[in-house]
Give the backbone structure.
Amino acid sequence: MAERSSWSLSGALRGMFAKKTIDDETWDDLEDALITADFGPDLTEAIVADLRAKVARYNTTDPKDLQRMLREGIEERLARFDTTLKLSDRPAVVLVVGVNGVGKTTTIGKFAKFLGNYGRSVLVGAADTFRAAAVDQLATWAERAGASIVRPQQQGQDPASVAFQTIERAKREGFEIVLIDTAGRLQTKGGLMDELTKIRRVIEKQAPIAEVLLVLDATTGQNGLAQAEAFVEHAGVTGLVLTKLDGSAKGGFVLSVQDRTGIPIKLVGQGEGIGDLTGFTPHVFAQQLVG
């Protein structure tokens, strides 16, 4: 992960932890910093209440202790979820969902590269068939990642049939991992969710679905949560991928999105490069967030 990011809380908290003692102002500053970092009011309240109780229990007035407790508390919250990718099936089929504009296509390219680095053979299925540009973009990223791709035979082909052909080829040629791109049109939410249900149904006749990964743009903050909930409800999401964590993303969103959805973050993207997608490590994240 990047050394120092704009989503880090440590800048906002530095002055607070450098003080000689914990006082009323410390608690106000902490609350403000958490709200500003997009933790959301409920989570902020829970974290502050938890810290007040710990400070009282250990009878400490040292802000350094408070910093350590905050870091450990955030790590603990994140670690409640299992961030491991479940990719042991052969082929392991991963459905990638999310609204247009969150970086879904680039995420698939980066994920293919990430898996390729571990020596896995990857086949990508371009089931977002209504945007020719999406298919071309996906093909470019797949090529850069050293992955193969199954394209629609014509524009507007039934996405489920592309998914079917992709898995058929994966089985025939022995690919280990299949990544299926899906449409992200939000206007027709009902239609989109029906389409996803159909794709799932068609895939599951051929092979179990190992993961359904929902891609979220971390810079959208709390607004992204509303988007997430429709997919969580209809698409059977098993993991989250947060993109654009290098931008103006606010770190608290990472906690609040897991807290609200109950779904673990499995991958994080920071940067434009093909190697900029990594697994999510609560310990590292908490360390960078709090300092």
Notes: The mean pLDDT is 84. The radius of gyration is 21 Å.
